[in-house]
Amino acid sequence: MVVTAIGWVSANWKMMLTVSTVAAGGGTFLHTQVERIEALEESQ
Question: Which helix (H) or strand (E) holds 1?
């Protein structure tokens, strides 16, 4: 079981890295958008 998991991770680490990078980038983007919307609402 552990050997299979290690094999899978070593085969798919690039995909996992890409997915986590995109997820982190998306989260940062959403957070920025939310802050902008809040700032707009306060200024009105």
Answer: none
Distance CA 19, CA 40 (A): 31
Work out the angle at residue 17's Cα, subtended by the Cα atoms of residues 11 and 23, and round it to the nearest 5 degrees.
Answer: 140
34 residue type, one letter: V
Tens of pLDDT, residue by residue over 1-44, are 788 888 888 889 899 899 999 999 988 998 999 999 999 999 98
Report the distance separating Cα 10 and Cα 8, nearest Å. Answer: 6
| DSSP letter (8 states) at residue 16 | H
CB 16 within 8 A of CB 9: yes
